[in-house]
Fold this protein.
Amino acid sequence: MTNSNTQLRTRLAEWTDRVLPSPTALLESTVARYQREGRPVFRLGLGQPDFPTPDRAKQSAIQAIHDDFTGYTDTAGILPLRQAISKALRRDIGLEYGPDEIVVTVGGKHALFNTINTLCHPGDEVLIPVPYWVSFPEQVKFAGAKPVFVQTDEADGFKVTPRTLAPYVNGSTRLLILNQPNNPSGAVYSKKELAELADFIRERDLWVISDEVYSSFVFQPEGFTSIASFPGMRERAVVINAVSKAYGMTGWRIGYSAAPAEVSEAMLRLQSHTTSNPSSVAQKAALAAIEGPQDDQTVIREQYMARRDLLVEGVRRIRGLECLVPEGAFYVWADASDWLGRPVAGRPVATVDDLAAILLEEAGVAVMPGTGFGSPRHLRLSYSVALPEMQGGLAAMEALLGSK
Ligand SMILES: Cc1ncc(COP(=O)(O)O)c(C=O)c1O
């Protein structure tokens, strides 16, 4: 580190030593640079749907601008939006939340940030099943709490159970972050698995954050169940969701939390001193998306399921890659550990980060290395891209790595 860097570091807050940059954001900026330079990239690294924001949402936002609906709103979000979210929660997960128990936020990420910073005391331990979404540990560290990583196995479908969680629980354990459908593994928990987890969480007197941002991408016939919906769980659960993935609205930045009133009131206090309300115009767009007919969700789900099957089949054809069939979200979590220690295109592969860099530079395929998700063995490939791009990416990977 240079002298000036050292001086700068000493002037920055202590958390800057603990919190890492977001690897997904870094990949996105590298891909953007490639595209600016006119180099073709197959974007299998992306975490956003390829379908557009629904027309009703766009029109509602345009109307909001024409109506000068451009001032501050309630910090918690406009009442009609919180009422629509309340209705959607009743419909989708069978839970009653009043508008005062819902806080509309700047994306799901912000709802998680509010929650973690409201529930965690310094030194509290937070259970994070591995693999995990990249921001969980960093947000926990930011809050002064300690991420405790709970390994999962491919044999268990990358899911935690009371048996695998138990050794990690002690007097400092505060909460479990349960993200399902899971980014990156695609794991979805059955009702039976959730009932067992719910018993465990109650017995150990823990909280649970249920990150449900991929809940509209569940492919198993049983559908999606929230852990918050089991007896005695609502009072110890915070449900997080967003319009980002469900409605192709990642850039609008609207998410929300649903939690017992006391927790929501505290989160609101934090939000009132940080972001205030999310964009008034984006709230109107989200309202139209959530309130309108939901038929397109089924169409999208079927399309994504077909793409999932193609991507799984394609990945399984490529030498040195293995994967399970994901039950939800829009990622394939491929075990690439066969490549570790073997050269690709004459270049050494010591880590999955090396492999991802080689795939990008030699084959023009952007994928996420598993490292940021807690795995040194995996690559995450996204099927939220149009078919030609996905097929082009698969063909380029197969040409570089070879077939089985
Ligand atoms: C598991 C998970 N939770 C939360 C988020 C955040 O979503 P948003 O874009 O609404 O902030 C993401 C985004 O990738 C995610 O994958």
Summary: The chain has a mean pLDDT of 95.
